[in-house]
Write a structure and sequence with these properties.
This protein has eleven helices and ten strands. It is α/β, with parallel strands linked by helices and 286 residues long. The chain has a single domain, classed as Aldolase class I (TIM Barrel, Alpha-Beta Barrel), CATH 3.20.20.70.
Length: 286
């Protein structure tokens, strides 16, 4: 199955109430590993790139990697630009071939956020791409974007005005979730997800997933969270796997990079595959 639009993946997940992992990759190894997990688990997958990763690797090289690794892939996958407040980066990625973007204008007044999001949606439609929107900052800093100060949540009426005006394809509400590692178990507003979905049915994006309990994931997915973002867990798995292997290599005095890459890849594949099973996306591409 070829690369598909974001809406193709999240619409089915929303209708059937399962979640699709939206995993932030950081390099070629992690990109290949999460795609391999999707094939192994017969699961749809949303591959995400942060602005930091786009700048680090370069949009041309990053998209060339994506094109090469998804050629002939057997499961539905899509490429998404995560939290991006910069219009020029959004335009660059859309022109290069990203399938969707999250225009993060959450620090702007709602009126200005809506005005610019309408423009981004129109721009994305010109490329056959989709847009995720938000009007409240998700607490925490991720790849240099965000704030540790919890933002005030908007009323349901404001949310509905935003959704109706902008016509975004996915919405990311603040529900007590946070980017990064939680210092304590998060207290989440499950009902807010249900209220939004009941008033304006559309797929919800769950941010700050790393560290939530299995029960919280399942409850939120059952209420309409079709896109489940995972970033911190990938970074921790990748770096801790490297660290563990290198400690053993140092003890043994054996330095073999291909063995390192294989070990780290296996850990990333296992992590991604376990999320696909937990979220209920495993087997959905069959």
């Amino acid at each position: 199955m070829p690369v598909v639009p974001l809406s193709t993946i999240v619409s089915d997940a929303f209708e059937k109430r399962y979640g699709v992992p939206a995993i932030n990759i950081v390099n070629d190894l992690t990109l290949e590993a999460v795609l391999a997990a999707a094939v192994e688990k017969s699961s749809p997958l949303i591959v995400q790139t942060s602005v930091k990763t786009v700048r680090s690797i370069g949009s041309d090289v990053l998209h060339a990697m994506w094109t090469a690794m998804t050629a002939g892939i057997e499961v539905p996958v899509t490429l998404h630009l995560d939290h991006c407040p910069e219009r020029e980066v959004i335009s660059e990625c859309l022109a290069r071939g990203w399938n969707s973007v999250l225009f993060d204008a959450s620090t702007m007044p709602v009126e200005e956020n809506m005005r610019q999001t309408v423009e981004v949606v129109a721009e994305a439609r010109g490329y056959g791409a989709h847009v995720e929107g938000e009007i409240e900052s998700i607490t925490g800093v991720e790849d240099g974007v965000g704030s540790d100060t919890e933002a005030q949540r908007q009323s349901l009426d404001v949310v509905l005005e935003f959704l109706g005006t902008t016509r975004v394809d996915v919405f990311a509400p603040a529900i007590g979730n946070a980017h990064g590692a939680y210092k304590q178990a998060p207290v989440l507003d499950f009902q807010r997800v249900s209220d939004i979905v009941a008033a304006h049915p559309l797929p919800i994006a769950l941010h700050g997933g790393s560290g939530m309990s299995d029960e919280q994931f399942r409850e939120l997915i059952s209420r309409g969270c079709a896109k489940v973002n995972i970033s911190t867990a990938l970074k921790e798995t990748y770096m801790k796997s490297n660290l563990a292997f290198l400690r053993i290599a140092d003890e043994r005095g054996k330095w073999d990079p291909p063995s390192l890459f294989r070990a780290v890849r296996e850990d990333v594949v296992d992590m991604a595959g376990s999320l696909m099973t937990l979220f209920g996306s495993a087997g959905r591409a069959a």
